[in-house]
Each structure stands twice: as structure tokens, then as C-alpha cells.
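Title: Prediction job returns without error message
Component: structure pipeline
Severity: low
Priority: P3
Assignee: unassigned

Description:
Job completed but the reporter wants confirmation the result is attached to the right record. Sequence as submitted:
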Amino acid sequence: MHDPQSQSGAEPHPVIAGFYERRSERQPFVRSLFNTTAAHYDSINRLFSLGTGTRYRRRCLLRAGLRPGLRVIDVAVGTGLLAAEAIAVIGDAKGVIGVDLSEGMLAVARRKLGIPLVQGAAESLPLAGETADFLTMGYALRHVSDLVVAFREFHRVLRRGGTLLLLEIGKPTRPLSRAVVSAYLRRLVPVLSRLTTGDARARTLMRYHWETIENCVPAERILQAMRDCGFVACRCDVDLDVFRSFIGRKP
């Protein structure tokens, strides 16, 4: 499903044939995919997470040290699922800034959340340096074009002592959990997404979602890229052999 010769060291995964053919096509493809499925994203997410996503997102934020009074940038804010939990923790909607490449996703988030929203990519954030105490990204690291470029931007907009929290789904390491997750995410979820939304593009979204999980670089490479960009105390917390929280701090 992918071309192993097409990956550079800073990419989260190779070019995935069948969805786009060249590295330069990745960002336009991702933007279009999320634009066309934004209206269905929350219902797909509930199906995908079996209703546990809200509790998990808030627990990860608290575990990483988010608390009232901090200012947050949520990159790839999407429909605002992670941003909503950040607001609940800090107690101030004006304390969270959402950034997303997809205008469709931003339109949904704008209807749901009373927070500042700006359109932009992780690799070139339209924000001033040292803007926030906390930067989050929920399940979108696999969609950036270059880990190092994105992490340098994250480092730039964080204040000294600020925290980076990346939520991701990773390929399970245990054979049994890998078989279960593959059966669910690769086969069942795309079909159910199509059936529940009535939109074939929802199936495409979840098929692509699985392919990026299956082909994503190992966690250690992500951690090393974080360190290379100046983050310290980097770690990856793993839940259920699938869910990963990458945490780092700007000195």
C-alpha cells in the first residue's frame, strides 16, 4: 500500500499509494479529505472510540500537567474534541487557540466552541513566538509532512517551561492486540462509517486512518525528533498497547 523508497527520515510515514502519489500531494489530499468529512467527524469518532474518547482525552491532559491559568494552542483542532477538554480543565475558553488546515473542520469547531480559531498548518503556525504554556495535537501527527519542521514550530510558539502533548494511535506491539485492532480499525470501522453516515468518503477517511497507523514510524523516532528540536524530559505513555501520549517540555 506504500512506496518504501519515498520516505525521508522526518516523515511520519511513507507516501501511501492509492490515496496520493507524491509527497507534495499529501497536504492537499489531507485537507480535502477532512474538508469533505467534517460534518461526519464527531459521529465517526464516537464509533471509533466506543464512547471513551472524552474521558481519555481529559485524563491525558491532566497527566501531562494542564491546569487552570495556562494558555493552550491546539494544533489540528479539528471539530474541537481535544480543545473542549482543555477548556474544561483550564476553565477559560479564551485561553485556548485552535489551529487547523481544514476550513471545513474549523467551521464545525466554530459552531461548537467559543475560542479563537485560525487556519494554518503545523509546519508553519500563524502565531507569534512564545504564545502558549501548553501545545496539544490530537491524532494528527501522522498527517504532517515533516516531524522536525512541525516540532520546531511547536518549540517556537511555546513559552519557556511549556509542555508539548501529542495524542496518537500506534501499531500494537503484542500479536493478540494487533490482530484485534487490525480487525476493528482496518475492516469493521470503515464499513460502519460508510453505513452510519451514508457517505462513501467517511469510509475513505477511516481506510486512510488505518494505513497511516500501520505505516507510521516507531515511537522512538518521534521521541528523537522531539529531542532534536530542543524538547527535554520526552516520554511516551502507552495505554492498552494502542494509545500513545508523547510528552515533552521546552527548557
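Comment from assignee: result matches the submitted record. Confidence is low (pLDDT under 50) at residues 1-8.
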